[in-house]
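Per reviewer request, we include the raw input and output of the structure prediction for the construct analysed in the revised manuscript.
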Amino acid sequence: MTAELKQFGTIEYKRSLRANRIAVRIRPEGLVVTLPLTKSPAEANDFILENKKRILQKQERVRNRQLSSELTLENGLRTLSFTVELQPCQRNDVFFQFSEGILKIDYPENADLTSTKLQQVCWKGIHYFMKKEAKRLLPARVDQLAKQHGFTYTDVKIQSGRTRWGSCSSRKNINLSLHLMMLTQELVDYVILHELCHTWEMNHGDRFWRLMDEVTAGKTKVYRNELKKYHIPE
């Protein structure tokens, strides 16, 4: 990798049969580049350098958003169905208690809440309860929206993926990220409707976006732009 490319961090290249152009997904630690079969990594590198300023600006915004995912006593973390409360206590371990829409996290009072280790322990617990709540709420919401708009699907699974909010297979199996629980109800519905529309249109062509506009009352662009403000915590 050249010195000029190193400023973007790690660059991962993926080939896709469905891709018709070079696409760059921006991560805090680097880039994920999707290549059509007709393009080479060298051509992708040229594309990255041609768009250097815009990509670096977006990467900086992503990194800044990532910092906001740090848990503190004041940040009032709220998920779709519960609020997280952290409290230093006289104990030697981290204790989680979930009740009536509140996840209480007690941690040793002499511990540094900003330390990477404690942050990871807390997030691991949060993810555990997010997944339980996602399994309880999201499949039911998929069913409700599918019936409302006349879609049919095969199955819904909740996954821990960190790259996509959701996906839909050619067999109409819908996968949803547990991290949807970090979004507002409107954006959760937008992602679900996006995947339900893929049960009819397995691409992002004009017919797909017209269908999306129908089921979102013409607010597709509004929701798409709003979703870009969120990221999946590392």
